[in-house]
Amino acid sequence: MPNYQGVEFCEMPLPVTTEPWPKFEGRRLSDLANENYDAPREELRERIGHKPFIWPNRTMYFFCDVHADADAWRRSLIASGGVRWLGPGDDEYELSEDGRDALFVIAGDCFDKGPSTLRLLRAIKLLIDKGADVEILAGNHDLRTLVGLAYLGRKEPRFAHLFVRMGQKTMPLFQEIRAQYLEPGDTSELSEDDLHELLFPDEEWFRRFPSVAKGLVPEKKIGKELKRIREKMVELPRKCEALDMSLGDIHRATTRARELFLEPEGEFHWYFERMDVARRWGSFLLVHAGVDDVTAGLLAEHNVSGANTWFHRLLADDPFELYHGPIGNMFRTKYRDFDHRFTDAGVEHMYEAGLYGIVHGHQNILRGQRVLMREGLLNFECDSSVDCNTRKLAGLSEHGGAVVVFQPNGVALGISADYPHVKVFDATQVFPHLTIV
């Protein structure tokens, strides 16, 4: 069990009992109970139990998909046991003894959906300033915001749609910036026609995009992307109106956002500066979403450092290829038929790299974290729908929070607002050849 400290500031009940994770040893009991949330332990052992699994001798806290909800972040930190919360404020805590020696992984998607992106980012910076070892991994919402800001006004076919691609979920961020950094009446001087020309792709873009995207974006997805951009061009102005903002207000707030996030002296420049796409944790790959055959091959040949090098090069040189290509799959894939493929060849590449499992978020689940096999890889799915707006849409209780704690003894604990027990994954029950180093 984690040592919760400051539960009076958590607002949600934290579990004090444990349950094996996965719950069932075999498929028969799982089927009898009509409970197929997790893969049974025998399935995990049959598929990968013979692998020489390496488990780091250090505590790691895995958070993901907090989506602009600083209160969910506070609850998740308290649930981890990595902090000792002392008061109601975002900064009223200290690292616990375990937290001082641990790694805190924030696996993407701090932007969009929730009530306050800026407050969440400031809260994360507080954790860094308190001396925590923090790793930030790229999520699709994070990268969508970054490239939208960076390529505002560019008309090349690879870039002209990237601002609109952020969509209506990002507009509250500009409302925050307007309220906190701009004076009343501080708006763009451009005309409405000029704003439309600047912010939105024109018809020429819709004609040229398919040929530019061919070979990089799967064929099934090109038509979907064109349709989605047209939808977003309608949704975005409507969302602005609902927020009592004009396109001129959005443009002015975007200009300020570029200073805050992209300029080296900007208040939030640190967030993207610290970001990687993946991290190795023993025999686990830590990532926002997943892999495909190409990235698995890269990992086999160049390890995770090669993937991060590729990520940073594309981030600087070609955000379109970053977002839509194989590296983008690491923060976007849901293994759909239009995503880049992950097959037996990719599994073999992962094995060559000594990677037998993936810990990730990205796919909303509603009963806490789960464990399953995807192709031939162990997957810890950790997006437990913690932000308040996702929870409202899903019909969940008001307060969310979740964390997976990887302990130095080969045990992983799944803790969430939506499951009454701490889920206890004992790696020795799956990997007879487990090595803790």
From TrEMBL:
Transmembrane segments: none annotated. Signal peptide: none annotated. Residues 96-160 form the Calcineurin-like phosphoesterase domain. InterPro entries: Calcineurin-like_PHP, Metallo-depent_PP-like. GO terms for molecular function: hydrolase activity. Pfam families: Metallophos (PF00149). This is Calcineurin-like phosphoesterase domain-containing protein. It comes from Enhygromyxa salina.
